[in-house]
Amino acid sequence: MMNNRFFSFVFFVCRWAVGILFVFSGFVKAIDPMGSAYKFEEYFEAFGWPALAPIALYLAIVLAVIELTLGLCMMARLRTQFTAWVALLFMLFFTALTLVLAITNAVTDCGCFGDAIVLSNWQTFYKNLIILPFVVVVFCLRNQCASTTNPVREWLAVVVLLGAGGMLSLYCLRHLPLIDFLPYHIGQNVPAAMTTPQGAPTAQYNVLLTYEKDGEQQQFAPEKSPWNDSTWTFVSSQSTLVSKGYVPPIHDFVVEHPQWGDITDSLLRNDYTLFVAIPKVSNITAEDIENLTKIAVATGNKKYAVVGLTTSSTDDSQQFAEQCHLPFDFCTVDATALKSTRLAPGVMLLHKGTIVAKWNLCDTPAPAFFEESILSNSINLLREQQEKCAVIICAFILFALLIALQTFVQQSAAKNRFRHRFV
């Protein structure tokens, strides 16, 4: 009896530890599918598979939904044997992958926790080494602590969880991430986020200078280099990063007007600036054009600046603006910066450099939003978004808890059979 209780406790702790990790990892990916898609594209580029870029978004959604569902199944003890196998194979694959990334540094971070928690490749590998024993324990006890409920009901619950995770991810894809972990979140002051605080650490490099004398090369530290000795000839220099310095959250936001050049500072000083982000004008849809027209009409006679942001060429963006009769100019920005806003396409409203509202074009507010009380309207819009976010998250958590409770009740009813097999 003591052994049974001990193994049950160990199985419970490991199962919940693994489940919570998978749920968190899957959730932060599911609410930001575009971020995961960009990470997949980075992987494909690093490993020489750029042809796979078109399926990056699909893979991102599938991975997030599988992780999220796997974690929920772990905690609810749904199809324990199957989920134990999947979790073990999952961890073995990604532990090996993160080891390769740590050694080669092919990408800056693996993106295992999206943009919520950014870990270095070595930190990610060590994290996997810590969690792997928990997965192994769950795998080893999968038979003794197997599920006891009706398999058909459990598989139905798994399918429902997969569907719920997919709907969550698709919702955030069409709109915006329910929780914004990126630098361009509502409430962020862009000028402040672009500055480096006084006394912040700077990057430290180890520099070696190579000189040659009598056909032999030798490396020197800069302070000991024979730069004033004519018998030595400078060959090359090599610098190695020792420690990273402070990097501002926003460091690549530059708005280039086709005629006036860099207008970033003037836009960030305005009382109100409306950025209409369209990464590629060639990818715009009829619905997007309709919403753009609404914005153009609503903002036509207002006193705040309206600027289009794109990575398309100047000729393409100007031609697009003329065809759609848009009364504002398009400026070019860095592709990475535009991706970080997650507006594809969408609108970002700034008040004296502070982001007060963001929305995708499919969520374009009514023309009344752009009237004189635009700041209070932005606050009301933010409250509505927060309420919607809370409702969706709470509904998803309640849904998962109901499935877990149903499974627990069914397993409690089969308690005697479970104990009989746990020998």
What does the model show?
The protein is α+β, with helices and mostly antiparallel strands and 423 residues long. Helix content is 52%, strand content 14%. The chain has helices at residues 2-30, 33-46, 56-76, 80-104, 121-140, 151-174, 190-193, 264-269, 286-299, 314-323, 335-341, 374-413, 415-421; strands at 204-213, 216-220, 233-243, 256-257, 261-262, 272-277, 305-310, 330-332, 346-351, 354-360. The strands form three sheets. A five-stranded mixed β-sheet has the order 8-7-6-9-10, sandwiched between helices. A three-stranded antiparallel β-sheet has the order 2-1-3, with no helix packed on it. Helix 1 (2-30) crosses helix 5 (121-140) and helix 3 crosses helix 12 (374-413). It is flat.
Question: Which H/E pattern describes the elements?
Answer: HHHHHHHEEEEEHEHEHEHEEHH
Strand order of the largest sheet: 8-7-6-9-10
Query: Radius of gyration from the CA trace?
Result: 27 Å
As residue ranges, the low-confidence spans are none
Mean pLDDT: 82
Number of strand segments: 10
The outline comes out as: flat
Structural class call reads alpha+beta
The helix fraction, in percent, is 40-55%
Largest sheet: 5 strands, mixed
Span of the ends, CA to CA: 9 Å
Brief account:
The chain is an alpha+beta fold. The chain has 13 helices and ten strands. The strands form three sheets. It has a five-stranded mixed β-sheet with strand order 8-7-6-9-10, sandwiched between helices. Strands 2-1-3 form a three-stranded antiparallel β-sheet, with no helix packed on it.
